[in-house]
Amino acid sequence: MRVLVTGATGYVGGRLVPRLLAEGHEVRTTTSNPDREGPWWSDRVETVTMDVKDPQQVADAVDGVEAVYYLIHGMGGGSDFAEQDRRAARNVADAVTRHGTPRVVYLSGIVPQADSSDLSEHIRSRLEVEEILASTPATVLTLRAAVLLGSGSTSFEIIRQVSERLPVETVPTWMRSDVQPVAVVDAVEALLGALTAQTGTRSYDIGGPERLPYADLLRRYAELAGLDRPQVEVPLLPTDLVGTLVGALTDVPTPTVEALVESLHHDMVCGEEDFRRDLLPAGHELVGLDEAIRRSLAEQSLAGREDPAQADPMGPMPQDPSWASGGEDRPLLAKAVDVVNDTVDRLSRD
């Protein structure tokens, strides 16, 4: 099958493309900067220039493919991020309709069981993107995931960097919600299965075999990483302040951190698990939580560093961002100064 993967250089896309190639699919990817060096697999795919905000470039990229993977996420800050997400989704939806593309697969986030007014702006925006794509004649499958486990995943890097950099983990009392982490290799298998699943337009919640409070997830990580990290619950910590503190302490982009922290007011767990039946190969066993963390922490073998095709996708890969694998090697004191400065700036604006 001829497949277009948007966001192919991102965390999930960079791991999905090799799986598609291994299954014999023809893959087209997009780039907004053709002068940038391509990923390690780029010589095996067709790459076209596409700015998702440019309707003609989007239409040209979609032309001739049988399926589109929509892996674009507007996790940035700013008051117009929802409008940018809306515009991008409409351009893709228009192109899919124009060319009669049979299938679209969209990777989104878990939608909590809550009133729409209680959802964060980012979750509401992802729901809107889902609705825009689903309005096309194509079969549109939306996969909703919560915490993705794997070296380089924003969710995992926040857990890793907070655990490694704080001698005591300060947990807000409102952060008692449950999460259902899923290993990135299982998410990729579900994405692959969505390409040929015999179903109509619908969403699937995807998660791993275990759900637990977020504070317990931090505790499990610390134990498996060999860290002694006592936890202290702190009441009355505002969400935006927590996002600022964690964003300053870690090397993950702050707007992404703030969006993820905001989502933790709700249980981020599967409402149904039909994906196991419909999207995964028969007999597929989901990676357990402890195994997923261990594999994410394991250093790649020499063979894996020389040939990424032989490496475990749960570990670091060449196209991962600079803040992956534990982040930048800056002294904790320097990061603490950044935290104080950012906190003062936030308080002065409030």
From TrEMBL:
Q: Which residues form the NAD(P)-binding domain?
A: 7-159
Locate the region Disordered: 300-331
Question: Which InterPro entries did the record assign?
Answer: NAD(P)-bd_dom, NAD(P)-bd_dom_sf, NAD(P)-dependent_oxidoreduct
- SUPFAM superfamilies for the chain: NAD(P)-binding Rossmann-fold domains
A Pfam family annotated for this chain is NAD_binding_10
Q: Where are the transmembrane segments?
A: none
This chain's protein is named NAD(P)-binding domain-containing protein
Question: Whose protein is this, by species?
Answer: Ornithinimicrobium pekingense
